[in-house]
Specification:
Helix content is 18%, strand content 47%. It is of the alpha+beta class.
Length: 158
């Protein structure tokens, strides 16, 4: 019975080793240079209420059921956060809504790619703000952190 030695499976010449090394290196370089399928898509999410663009938000959390309203349907809590607020703040909208001065609103959440093409759109129906906070991010830079929590009765995706 013959036994295979481990050395029988190794390349026997320096040329074979060099070609294998070059092939691996070439595959890595091609993968790094190719943008298709290897890079994350740069997406931006902004909010519109009554046709007013309130700017981009860095993080959106929620879309999970939190409680049942009087009719038995689920109410969801959605949180929006952003740093360095330069767009119109949601403060006045939240203040008016929280003090019962306006009706429940539909909120458009629009996701766009780097080119500005719309990727998806969420319509948060019959929204009411639960809380709104803003704090100084870095006084030297002049930015702020803004967070708003909303109660949402229905979510549609387009």
């Amino acid at each position: 019975m013959q036994t295979l030695k481990a050395t029988a499976l190794k390349p026997k010449s320096w040329l074979t080793r060099a070609l294998l090394g070059t092939a691996v290196l070439g595959a890595v370089i091609v993968a790094k240079m190719s943008t298709a399928g290897f890079s994350a898509q740069d997406l931006h999410t902004h909010i519109e209420i009554d046709g007013v663009n309130y700017g981009t938000f860095d993080k959106i959390e929620g879309l999970t059921p939190t409680a049942a309203n009087r009719s038995g349907s689920l109410v969801r809590k959605v949180s929006f956060r952003r740093d360095f607020v330069t767009d119109p703040s949601l403060y006045l909208w939240a203040k008016n809504e929280m003090h019962g001065r306006a009706d429940l609103k539909n909120v458009q959440v629009i996701v766009e790619n780097r080119d500005g093409s719309e990727v998806s759109r969420y319509v948060l129906r019959m929204c009411q703000p639960l809380s709104w906070t803003v704090e100084a991010a870095n006084p030297a830079l002049g930015g702020f952190h803004e967070k708003i929590d909303m109660a949402v009765q229905e979510i549609a995706v387009y």
